[in-house]
User: Fold Heme oxygenase from Aquimarina addita.
Amino acid sequence: MMSQQIKISDHQSKSILEILKAGTALSHQEAEKKNLAKKIIDHTISLEEYKKLLFINWKAYRSIEQYLYQNKHILPNELTSLVSYDKSNRLQKDLNALGVLLDHSQENSISCPENSSVDSLIGFLYVIEGSMLGGMLIAKHISQCPSLEHIRNPYFFSGKSKDQMKNWKEFCMYLNNQKYTESNIQKALDAANKAFTFFS
Ligand code: HEM
Assistant:
């Protein structure tokens, strides 16, 4: 598992967020190399590749959002407002606007086998909320891609940083005010690395 690259036992000097960032750095590097979003940044993406990226993202976010919904009752109150279908709904609107209709059988086929614990939910939330930071960068390049010129107001890569940063800041503030054991952190880290695999 990629999280082995950092020593969780050093955690007393590091915050859980720092450990999650360091412990998912390899997963993130892989995502940056392999995810079709890199073709938005170098402006070479075709319309078909953009649709594929939106579809892969839709399945990944939908699956994680469903898992979070199913386990919302075990989350602390401070984090329940982060549980929503906002990201997959925005992706669905983008896909629909491009003529891609998602049927319910695709939606139902998604499942998340992760054992549920608050720690694993935190790992999944870390990835989907943190990914919005990269999303803001990617959004700036959409209008510069020749194949995407006609897409005026995307819902997902919208660059609406204010809303996206609000959730991220709330999430970070909550984590920074809690105490975590090595075991809590390891579970969150394992779940975060697992969450990355949904996007490949
Ligand atoms: C081409 C693809 C991608 C690019 C260019 C990209 C870029 C970025 C950038 C610029 C940041 C902000 C870094 C910082 O402030 O230190 C970030 C953060 C992050 N991204 Fe990505 N990203 C990409 C793909 C992904 C994917 C597919 C995921 C997983 C769904 C993801 C998850 C995250 C997470 C969790 C963070 C927060 C890191 C932290 O500060 O703890 N990224 N990304």
Notes: The radius of gyration is 17 Å.
